[in-house]
Specification:
single chain, about 375 residues, alpha+beta, Double-stranded beta-helix, 2 domains, 15 strands, about 25% helix
């Protein structure tokens, strides 16, 4: 917290830092980003679209271990560096279905990781990222509840990476190079599950809304707290509050507390209350949640279109360093004819039952 401008202005009455609006902070007010705001573009077809739905090539070498019913799978007996293009496509499909897939003891280097992830599309660049190919991810040892008093971005909250972009990321991969023995875990929540957990009436309501995603709060905080310069000016985008995943065709909630500040169609008080509900909804989603304990050489690959995540803050002293690569995705869209994961599962179950009944009836009607 040493970089915070508010730390330089202490109240003589309370002895605590004075809360300063960012516009009065010259580090923020006078900064000129070097790059322009991105324009929308149309990425190549998602690699998961080319995968065998049964993933036979991938599962011929990998053992699958589902960590929860609805989110998170660990693949064993596998090295990412050795996967064929077909197996990489099937991995993308598994990630799109399960939200996040984990690996232990990987032999990837940074160069190998970058090359591998270029298979999935054009590499994205975080606003604070200096290297075009990857960003270094550190730990979180700050008290984010305290920081929020002095800088506007809720940096410890659930988020999908840079969801404010016109083309937000699709896949992200994080590989851990240094890590403490305890602490520094990362957690993910399924946005398929968050949508399914809503009442039918709430689903119909949210289906018609646009969430206001903004980088402004992070922009201010990058300058003030991190002491570095964002690459691009701040941006506000209105994305569907429920999006349709282009590969699975499933509905996923597209709201996160890290970057969403409201809902375009609602009045201020309505918007604030709905955002407050979604903060509760995400934080109470234990049945759609998975938490990963990192080790050196461990890797997680996730789909930002159907999960949110956050690093769990801690007080560990040992260094934590990860390398993250990310690729651009499509501009979020909502197809009113798409279905939720629960609706699809129900339809598949009914189809199976009807098929079994049909087979039984056919056997009964066959003459002896």
């Amino acid at each position: 917290m040493a970089h915070l401008e508010s730390r330089k202005h202490i109240s003589p009455d309370s002895g605590f830092p004075i809360t300063l609006h960012p516009n009065f902070n010259p580090k923020i007010k006078d900064y000129v980003p070097p790059d322009p705001i991105r324009e929308e573009f149309h990425p190549d077809k998602d690699r998961a679209s080319f995968a065998d739905p049964e993933k036979k090539a991938l599962f011929s070498i990998a053992k699958r271990v589902d960590l929860t019913e609805l989110i998170g799978t660990r693949l064993e007996n596998i090295q990412l560096s050795q996967l064929s293009p077909q197996q990489l496509d099937e991995l993308a499909l598994l990630v799109a279905e399960r939200g996040v897939v984990f690996f232990r003891d990987q032999d990837l280097t940074t160069e190998g990781q970058v090359k591998l992830f270029e298979h999935y599309g054009t590499l994205d660049r975080h606003p604070a990222q200096k290297d075009q190919r990857h960003v270094i991810i550190r730990g979180s040892r700050e008290d984010h509840r305290e920081i929020l008093k002095y800088t506007p971005w809720p940096s410890g909250e659930w988020h999908a990476d840079t969801s404010f972009e016109i083309n937000p990321p699709s896949y992200s991969l994080l590989r851990m190079e240094e890590h403490p023995p305890v602490g520094g875990d990362t957690a993910w929540v399924s946005q398929y599950g968050l949508y399914d957990a809503l009442s039918d009436a709430m689903k119909k309501f949210v289906d018609g809304l646009h969430a206001v995603h903004t980088s402004r709060l992070q922009y201010d905080t990058i300058l003030d707290l991190w002491g570095t310069g964002p690459n691009r000016p701040p941006i506000d985008t209105h994305h569907p509050a429920v999006r349709t995943h282009p590969v699975t065709g499933l509905k996923a909630l597209n709201v996160n507390t890290g970057f969403v500040t409201g809902f375009a169609e609602l009045k201020k008080q309505e918007s604030d209350k709905l955002l407050e509900f979604f903060a509760y909804h995400i934080h109470s989603a234990d049945d759609h949640y998975v938490r990963w304990k990192w080790t050196v050489g461990a890797v997680a690959m996730w789909d930002n279109r159907c999960v949110v995540h956050r690093v769990i803050p801690g007080t560990y002293e040992a260094p934590r360093k990860g390398i993250r690569t990310t690729v651009f995705g499509e501009k979020p869209y909502f197809d009113p004819n798409s279905e939720s994961r629960n609706e699809r599962a129900k339809q598949e179950k009914e189809s199976m039952i009807n098929g079994e009944n049909g087979a039984t009836d056919g056997q009964t009607q066959t003459p002896a």
